[in-house]
């Protein structure tokens, strides 16, 4: 019996070694380490997704370690610019919301980077936004909140990441109301985690923030509206344009969806197409694993494979919409 157990253990170990060796041989890139750059503080949507990749991807790359480094500042612009100066040989990738944060680092914050510097490998997670207030807020509805902003310009405070789609969404709302853009008092943070902490703790009156990433604080906030064109049953709140149409007679363009993406240097695939192909194979295998999908579901984020082509279509179209608004093309 002991001999059978020993043989079984040895066979299993040999099988595991063979799988690991095969995976390692299939990854022709740097094997000392792969680094995922998150240009925000820990705790936000991009950070949580990056840490999940760092936990599960090494097994698909033959044990190549994957680490996360946080480089916050200027709503993602600082870290995104830093990433472009790192090696483009497959040892560094960027995890952030291509829309809106990477786009607005270029369009609003004048970061020393270009849209063409990056290749979005996969939009793994698309998160819509909610208008949220602290649980004990006197604002019980979107109508209450908007009327307070109208009645007392400059007194209602909001938590934002400057340059985010949510930040622009505030400005669009104020434009539609015919109010100056300083009619809301902005309190800025670097990362979705600190934004959520601020509204959940009652440090600000409101925020517009990614919805799925906010499920962990749902007992400490109240959603007044879903900033999407599809109902969200998990939040007891109307779609924002339904509420605005009913109470104020207008709707507004929605620009605050968050495309949490895995991003490479544009030059990585140009210089090392074989490495890019093998990396994408490993990453897709990870996304398909039941243990990863279960982990993602428990963590409140998606494990969706869209691939480079579909992802590029999504983010490029959204980038052009944001660029049109920045140029004055309000609708």
UniProtKB/TrEMBL annotation:
Keyword Transcription regulation: no
Signal sequence range: 1-24
Keyword Signal: yes
UniProt keywords, alphabetically: Signal
Gene3D superfamilies tied to this protein: Bordetella uptake gene, domain 1, Periplasmic binding protein-like II
Pfam hit, one: TctC
Family that this chain belongs to: Belongs to the UPF0065 (bug) family.
Protein name: Tripartite tricarboxylate transporter substrate binding protein
């Amino acid at each position: 019996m002991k001999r059978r157990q020993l043989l079984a253990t040895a066979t299993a170990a040999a099988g595991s070694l063979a799988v690991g060796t095969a995976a390692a041989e299939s990854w022709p890139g740097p094997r000392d380490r792969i680094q995922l750059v998150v240009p925000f503080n820990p705790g936000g949507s991009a950070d949580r997704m990056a840490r999940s990749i760092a936990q599960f991807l090494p097994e698909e790359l033959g044990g190549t370690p994957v680490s996360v480094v946080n480089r916050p500042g200027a709503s993602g612009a600082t870290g995104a610019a830093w990433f472009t100066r790192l090696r483009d040989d497959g040892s560094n990738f960027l995890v952030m919301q291509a829309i809106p944060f990477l786009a607005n680092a270029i369009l609003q914050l004048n970061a020393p980077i270009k849209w063409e510097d990056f290749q979005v490998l996969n939009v793994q997670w698309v998160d819509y936004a909610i208008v949220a207030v602290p649980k004990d807020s006197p604002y019980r509805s979107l109508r209450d909140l908007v009327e307070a902003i109208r009645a007392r310009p400059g007194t209602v405070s909001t938590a934002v990441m400057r340059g985010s789609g949510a930040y622009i969404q505030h400005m669009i709302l104020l434009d539609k109301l015919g109010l100056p853009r300083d009619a809301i008092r902005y309190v800025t943070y670097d990362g979705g985690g600190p934004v959520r902490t601020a509204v959940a703790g009652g440090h600000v009156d409101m925020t517009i923030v990614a919805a799925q990433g906010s499920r962990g604080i749902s007992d400490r906030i109240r959603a007044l509206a879903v900033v999407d064109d599809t109902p969200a049953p998990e939040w007891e709140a109307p779609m924002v344009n339904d509420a605005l149409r009913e109470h104020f007679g207008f709707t507004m363009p929605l620009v605050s969806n968050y495309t949490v993406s895995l991003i490479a240097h544009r030059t990585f695939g140009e210089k090392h197409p074989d490495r890019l192909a093998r990396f994408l194979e490993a990453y897709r295998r990870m996304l398909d694993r039941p243990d990863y999908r279960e982990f993602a579901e428990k963590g409140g984020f998606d494990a969706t494979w869209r691939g480079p082509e579909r992802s590029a279509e999504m983010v490029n179209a959204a980038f052009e919409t944001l660029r049109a608004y920045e140029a004055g093309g309000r609708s």
